[in-house]
Inverse folding.
């Protein structure tokens, strides 16, 4: 079997490619914080009006998931390390780990049940309401506006 010394052959060429140093073609649009909050509030109102239980569940699920990550990865690890350093009895950290485990399993069953029942229909209702708003807005706009490229680029 002969080895070739030619550059650019073999799998290593994927890793040795020169990276492009050219700036990105599109600049990122910098929106003010108030505009971002306004946009999020707008979509939240649409979601809540279309399916309030689904929206509440998604907001609470986000908070609970982040709280669970904090408890698992920060607080529980710190508690276990403190228990080892202070020569605590084994049952204390084991009980804490068991309580966290049971709580997370119970929440997982709850989240699965909600996703199986209201989340599927709630998400569809929310999409339908948003599409209806877009279609209503499109009906109000004069068709000749879409022939103007500046309007089309700014609006759409």
């Amino acid at each position: 079997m002969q080895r070739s010394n030619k550059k650019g052959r073999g799998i290593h060429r994927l890793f040795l490619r020169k990276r492009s140093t050219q700036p990105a073609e599109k600049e990122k649009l910098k929106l003010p914080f108030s505009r971002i909050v306004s946009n999020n509030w707008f979509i939240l109102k649409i979601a809540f009006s279309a399916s309030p239980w689904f929206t509440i569940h998604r907001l609470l699920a986000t908070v609970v998931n982040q709280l669970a990550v904090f408890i698992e990865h920060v607080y529980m690890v710190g508690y276990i390390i403190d228990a080892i350093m202070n020569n605590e009895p084994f049952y204390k950290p084991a009980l804490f780990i068991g309580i966290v485990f049971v709580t997370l399993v119970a929440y997982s069953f709850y989240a699965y049940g909600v996703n199986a029942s209201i989340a599927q229909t709630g998400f569809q209702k929310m999409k339908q309401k948003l599409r209806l708003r877009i279609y209503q807005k499109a009906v109000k706009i004069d068709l000749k506006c879409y022939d103007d490229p500046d309007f089309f680029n700014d609006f759409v």
Q: What stands out?
A: The mean pLDDT is 80. The radius of gyration is 27 Å.
